[in-house]
């Protein structure tokens, strides 16, 4: 597991190319900032890359209650965007 700033966890991203990982961290960080501004009782967010899948992403958002979303796409960034943007609607 990779921890970013104490309230962001990335699970199963250890085998992702370093160049991609830098962009993933930026994308997740930017979404987390927007989500934490919208969700006043934001605690933490966990983004999981499902192993043995072609970019299935599961996101768990912890506030006063737990919210979940998931997305699958052959493009990692589209899957990430789809699953994280659900918390901004």
Structural class: alpha+beta
CATH topology: Double Stranded RNA Binding Domain
SS elements, strand count: 5
The largest sheet has its strands arranged as 1-2-3-4-5
> In this structure, how is the largest beta sheet organized?
5 strands, mixed
Which CATH class applies here? Alpha Beta
Under the CATH scheme, the architecture is: 2-Layer Sandwich
Give the number of domains.
1
Strand content: 25-35%
Helix percent band: 25-40%
| Helix-strand string | EEHEEEH
Mean pLDDT: 95
Q: Round the Cα radius of gyration to an integer and report it.
A: 12 Å
Specify the overall morphology: globular
Number of helices: 2
Stretches where pLDDT falls below 50 for ≥5 residues?
A: none
Tell me what you see in this structure.
- By secondary structure, the chain is α+β, with helices and mostly antiparallel strands.
- The protein has one domain (2-88): Double Stranded RNA Binding Domain, CATH 3.30.160.100.
- The protein has helices at residues 18-38, 76-85, and strands at 2-4, 8-11, 44-49, 56-62, 66-72.
- Helix 1 (18-38) runs parallel beside helix 2 (76-85).
- The mean pLDDT is 95.
Short description:
The protein is of the alpha+beta class. The protein has 2 helices and 5 strands; from the N terminus they run E-E-H-E-E-E-H.
How does the SSE layout of this entry go?
Blueprint: E1 2-4, E2 8-11, H1 18-38, E3 44-49, E4 56-62, E5 66-72, H2 76-85
Helix pairs in contact: 1-2
């Amino acid at each position: 597991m990779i921890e970013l700033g104490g309230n962001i966890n990335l699970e199963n991203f250890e085998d992702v190319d370093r160049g991609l990982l830098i962009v993933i961290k930026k994308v997740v960080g930017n979404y987390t900032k927007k989500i934490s501004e919208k969700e006043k009782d934001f605690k933490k967010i966990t983004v999981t890359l499902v192993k043995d899948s072609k970019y299935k992403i599961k996101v768990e958002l912890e506030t006063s209650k737990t919210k979940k979303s998931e997305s699958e796409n052959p493009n990692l960034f589209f899957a990430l965007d789809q699953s994280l943007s659900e918390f901004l609607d």
